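Re: that chain you flagged

S.,

Sorry for the slow reply, it's been a week of failed gels. I finally had a moment to sit down with the sequence you sent. For the record, here it is as I used it:
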Amino acid sequence: MPGVAIVTGASRGIGKASALALAEAGHAVVICARSQSDLEATAAEVRARGGRATAVVADVASEDDLKRLVAEARRQGESIDVLVNNAGVSPKPRNGRRTPVVEMTTQEWNEVMTTNLTSSFILAREVGKLMCSAKRGSIISISSVSVRVGGPSSGAHYVASKAGMSGLTKALAREFAPFGVRANAIAAGSIATVIGARSKNALEADWVERTIPLGRQGEPREIADLVVFLASDRSSYITGCTMDATGGWTMT
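Prediction finished late last night. Pasting the structure tokens below so you have them in one place:
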């Protein structure tokens, strides 16, 4: 019987789609984001479909908020079986374009690393303790195709943070495997989300058609379906992987 699934950045995009899909698979979802209205809308949609949802307004850049999120998940009375590290930022402050490395401030770098990577570490640490004790669990981190191609529209801080998530995934998989806990990541390609739209707008008009063999952006639900697979026992022999979902962009 599925237990609790924590999903960060669940107010829209991949996070929202993942929360809905995991709820459909039988998980009680505990979701977080900074926007209360958008987060409550996600929770309401989960409930309207017959699922169970708890909304926690939280900033993943705050360790206290992350610990409060885990505490709320524990209060649901079921084991925490799934953690989806999805929340992330990709600043493009120059009319939709990235900040060049030579002009990037240390503050901007640190803000992105804290939100994207450090939050994933903190949640993996806090939830990992519980999963290892229970001898089951799946940690899924949403990485990015930018790790493979250097980020044609993303800043160095975003690319480095997502590469860090893939590296963290391998370390978690190695340490947690003896306890029956798996860790995997998804290198998401160009997806039709707010961040995806900003990235697309920063490139040439026909970029998608020229670059992605399938000729289109992916949909959030297509990433969410992979999240559900990695969360389930159907992927019981998969750990330590970063799986590409890029429409063929990164085929070799």
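What I noticed first: The chain has one domain: 4-245.

Talk soon,
D.
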